[in-house]
Amino acid sequence: MKPRSPSSIISRRLVAKTKIKTVARSLSTRATSKDGPAKIAIDIDANRRLLNRYRFVQHESMRILAGWLPQAADFELKCEMGRSLWENAVQVNALYLRLREIQSPAFQKPTDSALVTLMEELRHAPDEFGLILGIYHVIVPSLIAALASHETATFPNSDQPSVYAIQHALLDLRAQQKRIEPLLAAAARAGKITAAARTWEKYIGALLAHAAGVSGLEARSKKAPRPPKSRTPFTPPREAARDSRFTNRAADMEPMPVEENYREHTVEEFERYSTEMLAAETVGLVMYLVPHMPWEFQFDTARHLYDEVRHCLMGYEWMRGHNMDPFQSPQYLHIYKWRSQFPPVMQYCMLTMGNEVHAFPYRHRRVEAHQKSGDQLSEQFVRYDIADETQHVRFGNRWLPELLKHVGEKRSLKQYVADALDVWRGQYLTGKLSINVE
Ligand SMILES: [Fe+2]
Ligand SMILES: [Fe+2]
Fold it and tell me: What residues have CB less than 8 Å from 318, skipping those under 6 apart?
């Protein structure tokens, strides 16, 4: 390193001194006015309350999107919901890391009942577009405005960790808006946005006005709005929806061509990837049904869900690259229906300890087969899949003991997993799915 000359050290110190003076001046302007000491825009108590409101809104949106995922039919919207809810989880996690430094417990139910009502009502949208309009045309713009104002109104140095989280959240939220808008515009052109969805959007807007915006600092409307007739009480979906492009919904899983038949087997391998939305939908349902597990569980399952959406899209990319139409793939929707009749812990156990644990020997054989045939794309896709699936099994091992405690299960972990795998082997592996019709 070049030794610094004494004059450069002095000039650096001068610059630093001047900077400190500038910051001090700007803080003192904030803290005083000609009428005496002025209020600081966001003091630490207001900061706690605001960050918790943003966290609450994003946390509830994440859960609602997860619960809604199976019943959203529009494929592109469904994929976007999976991505956005994971990004919301990342934002909630950043706020969690900050909130736990300034309050305990880190997550608290907001004391503003109007905000709680807003997020409680949001899930009862008449359809998926009503839900998305409520989130992306009403709540997200208000959240963005609140975050953008918070970013500059708080103490730039003392509260820098909040500013850091806010700046990253803003980046995500604005990118989400950019991705959602063309989907909503296409839906509007196709006449898929109903009057009921528009009425719902207005209702969510009125609920937000009654909560004085996401920040609680906007003008608060006096009267709580009455719900419109289109309000549809949300029940966790027992069936998965697909849009009209999917015509082959209920086919049974046929045996795959033998692995020795490389070409035919590979086509089927990636067609099966294209149906992994079923796994994302099961994880979404589980997330929704066990809301009181520790935050880290919710964070892991949000990622698990999005990984399965990515695996599905990987299948789409592969098929399109090989001139195949993924919308023609059988959707095996009865698998979701079958899985969803079991308690959420059992669904999660069958997925992680059944489907996911047992896939590794096969996946490693496929990597070898793709390497041998010089098919680099297929090899890379499977290796990324193996990396994700390794995490999913890790999540299963980490969270199953907690989940069993959470639901008060009396059986040991070992016994519970053995019993769940008996059902999985007897029904899923044989294809003899018995579905109890209620
Ligand atoms: Fe997967
Ligand atoms: Fe998985």
Answer: 270, 273, 274, 377, 378, 381
Q: Tell me, in angstroms, the distance from the centre of ligand 2 to residue 352's CA.
A: 7
Q: CA 270 to CA 278: how far, in whole Å?
A: 15
CATH of segment(s) 44-210: 1.10.620.20
Sorted by sequence, the CB contacts under 8 Å of residue 319 that are 6+ apart come out as 270, 271, 274, 325, 326, 329
Count other Cβ atoms within 10 Å, centred on residue 205. Answer: 17
Residue showing tokens 């002025």: 38
- Give the type of residue at 111: T
Intervals of CATH 1.10.620.20 along the chain: 44-210
Read off the amino acid at residue 129.
F
CATH architecture of 262-429: Up-down Bundle (1.20)
Separation between Cα atoms, residue 388 and residue 394, nearest integer Å: 10
pLDDT tens digit string along 12-62? Answer: 444 343 333 333 333 333 444 455 444 558 999 999 999 999 999 999 999
Tokens 């970013």 -> residue: 151
Going by the DSSP 8-state scheme, the letter that residue 32 receives in this structure is E
Whole-number Å distance, alpha carbon 276 to ligand 1 midpoint, is 6
Cβ atoms within 10 Å, residue 370 = 21
Query: CATH 1.20.1260 residue ranges in the chain?
Result: 262-429
Q: What DSSP string describes 165-179?
A: HHHHHHHHHHHHHHH
Which tokens in the block code for residue 42?
Answer: 């966001």
| pTM for this model (two decimals) | 0.90
CA of 396 to the centre of ligand 2 (A): 10
Peptide bond before residue 401 is cis, with ω within 30 degrees of 0: no
Task: Give 136-158 pLDDT, tens digit per residue.
Answer: 999 999 999 999 999 999 999 99
- Give the Å distance between the CA of 34 and the centre of ligand 1: 63
- Measured from the Cβ of residue 182, the count of other Cβ atoms closer than 10 Å reads 10
